[in-house]
Design a protein that fits this description.
alpha/beta, Aspartate Aminotransferase, domain 2, Aspartate Aminotransferase, domain 1, 2 domains, 14% strand
Length: 399
């Protein structure tokens, strides 16, 4: 997955271009920039790649998710349904707006279970946030249907699935708003960065203004611009955008390599009947950023993960006990450890987390291993890795 693996002349050229010209900010300084607009160029490239009308670059994937919610008016007291398996950014973004994260189970897709979503809807629910984890996606048809019936927003976090598709539509472009991260370890990187994409003009205008202190971006004098509403600073810099601009041009190459390496590993693991691959919904094609599979039980998965580590097979995650991605270790959320007071509404709204069990999520995450697919592996390295993985899994299964 990480695009940084293949950094080269293209990235250097774009960054030097910005440095030599000297304007590091994406807005204003029209007279000084001699036609250099890296952030704008990258936004246009994103619109084309992800087949949407509008794209707004921001400083991170976390700010992208926050902005997506804010631009559609999600705020104090609103409930947002999100999965138990995701990155901490999901609840951070929801809570930053004073809204309440409602965590629900995942299913064999490793993303939101539509049944669990439906069961969690209340009169306060405003949005459903599907997180396309580890290169694949949720059942978008089912989720769209639920959102349509209940008049809910569908927010799509495609930070880990850049390049995946569902019924030939790019992931990120299916929900009302889609979010990407271009942090250092994502398929395309800016160093730090993110984007919101949408076909809704009003949401886009809101994104454009909100991410820059509410500036209306009319005219050529920043100081004279008006502020139709309150905003914040989620801006990306020209330097970061320059790296992303070089990287997005290479996305087809990155996806080709991911698919090739993924295919070789998957074929090797297919020999083992006990290995069951994660379900990809009908009509979906993964981005191949990760190879995900289930082992028969928690014990086997724990042992295989351990043996992978001792045999030098890196990048395979058993998320069951992982701090970043699974609810089991989010004690700071369950205990609401905050530097500043949190509203009574959110505190009450999150009380359920102290006692709620997510047995269905445990069932899937406990047995799942998720292996990062690198771009820089040689064919020989992939073959050796595949053989080693098969050997380790067989050994653990037979003991
Ligand atoms: C990386 C990631 C984010 C946040 O992105 P940052 O750019 O690191 O803030 C959000 N959601 C998911 C699923 C991610 O993997």
């Amino acid at each position: 997955m990480p695009g940084f693996e293949l950094f080269g002349d293209a990235e250097r050229k774009e960054v030097n271009d910005v440095l030599e010209n000297g304007v590091l900010m994406r807005y204003g300084f029209d007279g000084m920039r001699n036609g250099h607009w890296k952030a704008k160029e990258l936004e246009i490239a994103l619109q084309k790649s992800f087949k949407t009308k509008y794209a707004q670059l921001v400083s991170s994937g976390t700010t992208a998710v926050t902005l997506a919610l804010a631009s559609a008016g999600v705020g104090a007291g609103d409930e947002v349904i999100m999965p138990t398996f995701t990155f901490v950014a999901s609840f951070e973004a929801i809570m930053a707006l004073g809204a309440i994260p409602v965590l629900v189970d995942i299913d064999e897709t490793l993303t939101l279970s539509p049944k669990a979503v439906e069961a969690a809807i209340t009169s306060k629910t405003r949005a459903v946030m599907v997180v396309q984890m580890c290169g694949s996606m949720g059942d978008m048809t089912a989720l769209q249907k639920i959102c349509h019936e209940h008049k809910l927003l569908l927010i799509e976090d495609a930070c880990q699935a850049i390049g995946g598709t569902y019924n030939n539509k790019p992931l990120g472009s299916i929900g009302d708003l889609g979010c990407f991260s271009f942090d250092f370890v994502k398929t395309i990187t800016c160093g730090e960065g993110g984007a919101v994409i949408t076909n809704n003009e009003q949401y886009y205008t809101n994104c454009d203004h909100y991410s820059d202190h509410g500036h209306d971006h009319i005219g050529q004098d920043r100081g004279a611009e008006t502020h139709p509403f309150l905003g914040y600073n989620y801006r990306i810099s020209e330097l970061h955008a320059a790296v992303g601009l070089a990287q997005i041009k290479r996305l087809p190459e990155f996806l080709y390599l991911q698919k090739k390496n993924y295919g070789m590993l998957r074929e090797a693991l297919s020999q083992i009947p006990e290995v069951v691959f994660r379900t990809v919904p009908e009509g979906g094609e993964e981005s191949y950023a990760f190879l995900n599979f289930f082992l028969p039980d928690l014990e086997t998965a724990t042992q295989v993960a351990q043996e992978f580590k001792t045999s030098g097979i890196d990048g395979c995650f058993h998320y069951y006990n992982n701090n970043w991605h699974y609810i089991k270790k989010w004690d700071h959320l369950k205990e609401l450890k905050s530097l500043f007071p949190i509203s009574a509404e959110v505190r009450t709204g999150l009380e359920y987390l102290k006692t709620k069990e997510f047995l269905q999520s445990d069932h899937y995450i406990g047995r799942n291993l998720s292996c990062l697919i690198k771009l820089s592996w040689t064919e020989e390295e992939v073959k050796m890795r595949a053989n080693k993985m098969v050997e380790v899994i067989k050994k653990v299964l037979n003991t």
